[in-house]
User: Fold this.
Amino acid sequence: VDEFSLDNPANFTYGKCNCLLPLSRDHPRFSEVKLLFKKEWQHRKKARPQVHFIFKVLWPAALLQPYLAYRDKTLQPGHSPGNEQLLFHGTNRACLLGEKGNSILCNLHECNLCSILRTSFDTSRAARCLMVLRFGYGIYTTSCSSKADDYIDNLSQDATFRVMIVSHVIVGRPFSLYSSVTDLHSPPNGYDSVRL
Assistant:
């Protein structure tokens, strides 16, 4: 059973129906993600924020299975299965998820964060959120935490924290671009992703 499955007994701590599991500061994943966030904060003119909370996102096995199958299908020699990487994604948040440890997803239509955490990424929603689609329709992630921070938007006046998604991404065989190509709908044949 996968580490991120709701069906994994190790995740039963907070009940089988809660998809966000708060990690304690001494949990190995907390340290891993916090260090990655700090290391990949590359915009020196932007103050690097403190990490207050990290939540592990849990999925029903039925929602995880397509991801795991794609990862196994996209094996790349010399890389982890599917060239899987931890990458950052910034989006808007209309609720107070993450504030003071709040782990309850909202049902607000305009809250992209809760929508992603509930049903995963949706390229049709991404297209409406970005003013400029540099590489066409797709899911935009980055290894640079400070770049993902540029896309975070708190819609609630009561929000005091900024919330970012750190996600396992199947990079596979990436196609390198050196300028914007705004009409892409998928990577070129023989490639699994696009990178700048």
Q: What stands out?
A: The CA atoms of residues 5 and 59 lie 5 Å apart. The helical segments are 28-39, 61-73, 112-119, 123-129, 145-149.
